[in-house]
Design brief:
- Two copies of one chain form a homodimer.
- Chain A is an alpha+beta fold and 498 residues long.
- The first copy, chain A, folds into three domains: 112 residues, 2-Layer Sandwich (Uridine Diphospho-n-acetylenolpyruvylglucosamine Reductase, domain 2), CATH 3.30.43; 120 residues, Uridine Diphospho-n-acetylenolpyruvylglucosamine Reductase, domain 3 (2-Layer Sandwich), CATH 3.30.465.10; 190 residues, Vanillyl-alcohol Oxidase, Chain A, domain 3 (3-Layer(aba) Sandwich).
- Chain A contains 17 helices and 19 strands.
- In chain A, strand 8 and strand 9 form a beta hairpin.
- In chain A, helix 2 packs antiparallel against helix 4 and helix 10 runs antiparallel to helix 15.
């Protein structure tokens, strides 16, 4: 317990209940103070914060700070010194200017649903909780675009869009804030057809570390394409809060499909399921979702949801389109499934029926946790070229077995991205050690296969070493040059990514 | 003629035949030397270049330098001091290190088909002609990816891909090099369905200004998506040679459509044609191309190709898909065309018939020039949100008329991107002045409509002032910070973009 959570020696050791979290947070704060020799925020600085946003919108209460010191990952809680709730972009600018002037670290906070410790305030400072800036502005049905503030979540946006014939398809699972999804470079189940966050963000309004306001595509602009200077939008998407605050995002919307159908297909093995995926893509079937579950996960999900599915490598396949094109896609899919020795259920087309099938997938996390009641979960996130996916998946399964670990697999297999949901006893240091070693091996296996250590969760705290291996020294040096150019005092979410 | 072409006072004044070009180049070189006080390259430096690539691969001949001192734009020729032809990436690194050490400007050169003066050596220095590095490597049919060197053009790649069932769809018209297209952030007719260069580049091998080698997504990597650090690939796509040399690009390929069909539709006015476009997109018809021609351009193209089309606002519509989905798309399109008061020809499905229709569009440049024989052409490149397109197009047509200018319009209207092909007498300073004033007004009109001054041609030399208006001071400062971080001595293609 004397370990500083600001410098996590071992990130998986201490998934904790709230009481334990608090103790760790305290130790962390003490450890951070002692190791970094940073003084707590002086009272006049806290007063200055209050002068900007009003007293009720600043908190230094322990419980509030702890609540903002972690996301949904295993990284130990690292609370900020204060939490502020700005209500408008001008306030974010003023607060940033204040912090910049006093060289106080700043950490953006959305919904806290990240998976790599992106919000943990490992160097203390001020957490900017942007959830109260939640306006949905400038919906343009003709331009298929909408502008949202950081408090707007993807579900809130899609609810707002009901009846317009448009939707925002990027779906990482959690009901994350859209600006947080942009900051993470999130994607999810629909990315194979609709892309990740990057191609779906048209413009970002960013508060820079010194409080200046940047519009990445220029103020008020939203052309569908541009070739005007370096692509600042793509630079800030996936920057994980290390370059500035995303205080508004202009997003590309998509027409709602006329019809949707889902099926579940079972295969004799992982190789067959992945081969089926490649053939679906090669046949140019405009598949909307191809989600993979290995036989352990399929079994867990089936039991958790009471669906009675075969214990087999499984694909969930969803198609979108007009009625006529849907029928054609379904026929093509069925043929490809059969060619790969698979068999599929009848297609579910009604909303309720489809949601029932997807709820099985959406509950994968809990189904995995149910395999070892009382244990904790951690999700890996590698992504490899599709041709290498069968080998990487098979080797990873062998590794899990050899390491005596529970880690059922799910994956956005159309993109080559898969997760092992590792379920382990966080109170057992030896098992935690095995988990750590396994995740490092998995990351390196993905790199060796020409892939990445993170397809959609980001680097955050836990993948900084792997990032260096992935990019090489020149790549990392280039990232550092950019970071130093845009945040010369390393005040924005310090300790993350780099 | 005494004007320095290194600092073009007026970029449209001097579209010249080759003899005139040479005179201008000479004046430019003299002007540059006198105004910038830069000495010519010392002989020992030229010897050092020869030592790297061999004597036949270095030239300081006037004709060669002039040939490399311009692209297809109106910007006056600005020849480099020497041209080198590296044969391998190691040579590019050595040459860059040499130039870096001696603080000599470097200009990357592909096919010279750019439209904004991107290759003009306005500060002299060494032109790196990368056309002899033309290997196509690592074609992966399973991963839908290929790696190409900078000498490979899009047509050469698609020829190489024949019989594989895959293709690379980005088509800016010219048979440009793929690395040059990446450097420009090119797009073209297929972008509405397949995207611009940015989402179609998976990795870039870049020689940095000091000769170090960077792989933007890490060495040898090509996952379909990643969330590992800032997106360096997107940063270098569209950087117009100002951050480094693109010496290899890994590209995303697409499955060839089973069937293709094209039609031409005529409308009562521009508004109806654009409204049709918006409805096609809203109906989620996965249209592959929607190209717009105003009535002047339709008439010019019709006469040039002898097709006898109506003199009317016109759309060329292309659909890709399976036979069944094609029939459905065609029916949807026809309904939408009729709803907007348009009428369309029978669909062309055979290759020859389709190519005949497209040749009309591809010859638009020459058809426009034929409107005023002996005159020169210049293409504008604004892109606006689709909802604003009718107004912007109508105002632009009125402006053309009020300015007594010939400027038929073509456009990738599904993206809101359109070009006026301005045809003018470059020997008439007064007309050139009107052209200049018109292009500035058009740029500002696009900006006022929430658009960009360049959808796909890039900033180059001519749009630097408009870029500042588009991005605002903070945006420009951010671009400058990035440029200074990655090229602190401003050696890479100086004078472009910023």
């Amino acid at each position: 317990m004397s370990r500083s959570c600001a410098v996590p020696v071992f990130p998986f050791l201490s998934r904790c209940n709230m009481a334990l979290r608090r103790v760790l947070a305290l130790a962390a704060a003490l450890g951070r103070r002692s190791c970094c020799s940073k003084p707590p925020l002086p009272p006049d600085f806290v007063e200055a914060l209050r002068a900007v946003v009003g007293t009720p919108n600043v908190s230094t209460a322990t419980a509030v700070r702890e609540q903002h010191g972690h996301d949904e990952s295993m990284h130990p809680c690292a609370p900020p010194d204060a939490v502020v709730w700005p209500q408008a972009v001008g306030q974010v600018q003023e607060l940033a200017a204040l912090c910049h002037h006093r060289r106080v670290p700043m950490v953006p906070f959305g919904t806290g649903t990240g998976l790599e410790g992106g919000v943990n305030a490992v160097q203390g400072g001020v957490c900017f909780d942007l959830s109260r800036m939640d306006a949905i502005a400038e919906l343009s049905l003709e331009d298929f675009s909408v502008t949202v503030e950081p408090g707007v979540t993807r579900k809130a946006l899609n609810k707002h869009l009901r009846g317009t014939g448009l939707w925002f398809p990027v779906d990482p699972g959690a009901d994350a804030s859209l600006c947080g999804m942009a900051a993470t470079g999130a994607s999810g189940t629909n990315a194979v057809r609709y892309g990740t966050m990057r191609p779906n963000v048209l413009n970002l309004r960013v508060v820079l570390p010194d409080g200046r306001l940047l519009h990445t595509a220029g103020p008020g602009r939203q052309p569908r394409k541009r070739a005007a200077g370096y692509d600042l939008t793509s630079l800030f998407v996936g920057s994980e809060g290390t370059l500035g605050f995303l205080t508004q995002a202009t997003l590309r919307l998509h027409p709602l499909p006329e019809a949707t159908a889902v099926t579940i297909a079972s295969f004799p093995g992982v190789g067959a399921a992945v081969a089926c995926t490649v053939q679906v893509l090669q046949a140019a079937v405009p598949v909307a979702r191809i989600e993979f579950l290995d036989e352990v996960m399929a079994d867990a999900c089936s039991r958790f949801s009471g669906m009675g599915l075969p214990v087999a490598a499984t694909l969930l396949l969803e198609v979108h389109g007009s009625r006529c094109s849907l029928a054609e896609q379904q026929q093509q899919m069925e043929e490809i499934v059969q060619q790969n020795g698979g068999s599929s259920l009848a297609w579910a087309e009604g909303l309720e029926e489809r949601e029932q099938l997807w709820s099985m997938r959406h509950n994968a996390w809990y189904a995995a946790l149910a395999l070892r009641p009382g244990c904790q979960g951690y999700s890996t996130d590698v992504c490899v070229p599709i041709s290498r996916l069968p080998d990487v998946v098979v080797e990873t399964k062998q590794d899990l077995q050899a390491s005596s670990l529970t880690g059922p697999m799910v994956g956005h297999v159309g993109d080559g991205n898969f997760h092992c949901i590792l379920v382990f006893n966080s109170q057992d240091p030896e098992e935690a050690q095995r988990i750590h070693a396994f995740t490092q091996r998995l990351g390196r296996r993905a790199l060796a296969a020409g892939g990445t250590c993170t397809g959609e969760h980001g680097v955050g705290l836990g993948k900084r070493a792997l990032l260096q291996e992935e990019l090489g020294q020149e790549g990392l040096d280039t990232l550092r040059s950019i970071k130093a150019a845009l945040d010369p005092h390393n005040l924005m979410n310090p300790g993350k990514v780099l």
